[in-house]
Please model this.
Amino acid sequence: MKLILKQYLASLRERQELDAVLPDLLSSMGMNVFISPTRGVKEYGVDIAAVGQVNAQEEKVYLFSVKSGNLTRETWNGSANQALRPSLDEIQDSFILSRLPPEHRDKKIIICLCFGGDVNSGIRQEVSGYEQRNTRDNISFEEWNGDKLSELIRQYLLKEELLPSSSQALLRKSLALLEEPESSSKHFFLLIDEVLSNATDAESVASSITRINVCLWVLFSWCRDGGNLEAAYLSSERAILLAWGKVKGHYTGKNKPSRSFNSILDTYQQITDCYVDRCLIPYVGLKYALSHAVHSPCSIDVNIKLFDVLGRLAVKGHWILDSLTKSYDEKPPTDEESKEQEKLRLRLREVTSAINLMVVNNPMLLSPYKDSQAIELGLALTLLSNNSERDDFVHNWLSEMVYICIFSFESNGMYPIVHNSYEKLLEHRNKDKADSIYKKNVTKASVLYPLLAVFCSLYKLETVSLDLETFATDKLAHSTLQYWYPNQSSELNMYSNSDKHGSASTDFPMNGNAALEHIKQESGNTDSLKNMSAVTKEKAPLVLTACRCYRYPVPFHYIEDFLNASE
Model:
């Protein structure tokens, strides 16, 4: 386990990675962290500051200057950005004299050189000489390298009482199976369940989430080094949902459980950012690039994966949109806040543009094979409905998709069916799809066509809406056209998928205006979504993440603003 942790630490970058793990570790050691990493604030060499006792010694102040990887000549005192030696000089010249809180000035001070790897042998004498020259009565130096950090993490965060040997074995299995992402993530899911199973009060919930976060970081660092992020993506998605299911009753935004959840949510955001930036955005502008990347001659494989990726990209967009929306308030933003808002706007534009290019360059996304792919379409269309710049694209996408679905049905092609299993899709491709009994059986229900009817009407595609209505009347009279909405049991089950929940509205009208009135009435009749903890505690994209992960249609509540604007 120590070797696994050391490799993980060595791979971490300084900003938002190594310095994000350290405060949790120090808190677990019983220290009081009084300075944490903050963007846009001059640090005077100090990334993290804490006060406390280590190994039953007297209480001391620990000032950490954090660097990533091995300490080389370049990162010690070279041209590297924020080299370590100048930071140590700043701590002694500025921080201790002017920034150290008065109540800690009479305590001994330990300046900690913190890095995830080791000191290169070529500069060992320079580092040791610097430490000896600058050691005084009340100031001394310590090196917190990868060895020491991995031992402390094992001792305080992942010790046997907190992370038993069975959970450690699950983590090792998950790491060993990274090239088989489904198997790897299944072992990690078991680890999450095991760690959270005994978390009941606020303290144990916070501790459990922190341990899962460390394990998730270990998994992510190994996935990133191996160039296969799939297991980390799937595991992070499940981790934040199950963590929220445990922490929601204790979440205030400020207490220890809140900080633990926000920390694992940050890890999820970094994993999904890395996935989108490495695996999707560089290739969406290239014709058929993502389709070829599936590495399968079978169109079913390509179809399933492309819609899956579409959903992931859309969920990322919803999280960015949520952050951007919350960044606006009544008071004028500071310069730093304005820069952050602009960064979020550009990022959101990048994601919506990627969806546009992905559909244009991968025409398979015009032809859903599974009715449940309404989930991915709902995620994408709900996101795009917030951006009028993409209206022309959405018009074309909806029109093409509706007509391809109709043509596929009438020509007995690969029209959408209710089954989700790969075997059933293969059977569908090889079946005599003109068989009326078979056809009725595999299209006996649908949430896809109601979704298309709603968005065609919202975007005022009158001709397309009329053709879709005629098709539904003539060809889908046998089908239960319906849609799903959260109900009172959804709060209990949404984040864990422990049981079925929600309600379906059947006899969904396919006439455009009637469809809009129907969803307004259905959404207005229930406050279940608005009362869900993720919504009331300003983590609304968690519901959309759960929809993607556990396969529930996107509630129409998320287009209420668009509905009201269309009146």
Remarks:
- The mean pLDDT is 91.
